[in-house]
């Protein structure tokens, strides 16, 4: 057999093997891509949480504002939700105490994104519509009331559903809980989508007000960019839940793939974009990273001298 014929035979067998195992290869590629993106992005999000924690612990910081506190809560909620998924993969859910804690935690995290988006929109709306009253609304007692409402919203809106179906909430993989699982997804969709639908007019009105105002000061420019940032986040949120609904309705692999991409886009594009569009956040974050590097360098230098 000539080399050309042998090469053709090998290439034919290779393409045949790929065609035969195409679905398996796609699933493996997807798992690798999804897990890699989640690992890198959640690690960065953890750094962002530590950074914001240090800023909030200072006596004074430019980031000690309501918008960043809402952002901080959304980061923590998302990280806790991802940790619950990781723990499920490890099989720790088989321990009853862990099962109860993390299933309830996941229930809370699933009901939270919509109220976070609504609070972002409400914050930007009041900043543009009532600039002179903004600080009165988002500081002091009114701010604590707003944050309390945001944190307790999933409990207020869905606690009865949790208690009434507590067994299936903990054991949603059992056959008798199949109907509950579908109902839970519908409730989650309705709660989050309703809040985003309510948030969208606030963002549009804020854009309208911002177009009629002049932005000369540095802080006014930041306010405008935060509004654009919030609008992008809301649009990505709508895309995520649109593909989620289509996937659950039609069960198509490609729709499920788009759901994954939209999920990661909604989570991670705003996360990475914030330092680029907000120089106040970027300046504080760069200072935070540099301080950590200088601190580590100083420790290594001392250790070398002791040796």
From TrEMBL:
Top-level taxon: Eukaryota
Record has Transmembrane helix as a keyword: yes
Keywords: Membrane, Transmembrane, Transmembrane helix
Membrane-crossing segments per the record: 66-87, 107-125, 137-163, 183-205, 226-248, 268-285
Name the record gives this protein: G_PROTEIN_RECEP_F1_2 domain-containing protein
Annotated source species: Panagrellus redivivus
């Amino acid at each position: 057999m000539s080399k050309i014929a042998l090469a053709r035979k090998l290439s034919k067998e290779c393409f045949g093997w790929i065609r035969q195992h195409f679905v398996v290869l796609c699933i493996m590629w997807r798992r690798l891509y999804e897990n890699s993106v989640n690992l890198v992005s959640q690690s960065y999000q953890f750094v962002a949480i530590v950074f914001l924690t240090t800023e909030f612990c200072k006596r004074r910081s430019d980031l000690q504002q309501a918008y960043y506190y809402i952002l901080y809560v959304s980061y923590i909620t998302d990280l806790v939700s991802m940790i619950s998924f990781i723990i499920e993969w490890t099989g720790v859910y088989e321990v009853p105490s862990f099962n109860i804690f993390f299933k309830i935690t996941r229930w809370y995290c699933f009901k939270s994104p919509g109220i976070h988006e609504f609070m972002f929109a409400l914050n930007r709306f009041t900043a543009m519509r009532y600039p002179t009253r903004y600080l009165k609304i988002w500081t002091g007692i009114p701010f604590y009331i707003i944050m309390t409402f945001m944190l307790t919203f999933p409990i207020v809106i869905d606690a009865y559903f949790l208690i009434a179906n507590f067994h299936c909430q903990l054991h949603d993989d059992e056959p008798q809980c199949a109907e509950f699982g579908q109902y839970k997804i519908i409730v989650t969709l309705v709660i989050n989508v309703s809040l985003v639908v309510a948030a969208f007019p606030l963002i549009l009105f804020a854009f309208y007000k911002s177009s009629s105002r002049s932005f000369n000061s540095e802080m006014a420019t930041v306010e405008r960019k935060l509004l654009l940032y919030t609008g992008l986040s809301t649009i990505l949120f709508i895309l995520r839940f649109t593909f989620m609904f289509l996937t659950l309705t039609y069960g198509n692999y490609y729709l499920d793939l788009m759901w994954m991409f939209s999920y990661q886009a909604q989570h991670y594009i705003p996360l990475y974009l914030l330092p680029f569009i907000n120089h106040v956040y970027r300046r504080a974050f760069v200072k935070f990273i540099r301080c950590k590097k200088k601190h580590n360098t100083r420790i290594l230098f001392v250790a070398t001298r002791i040796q």
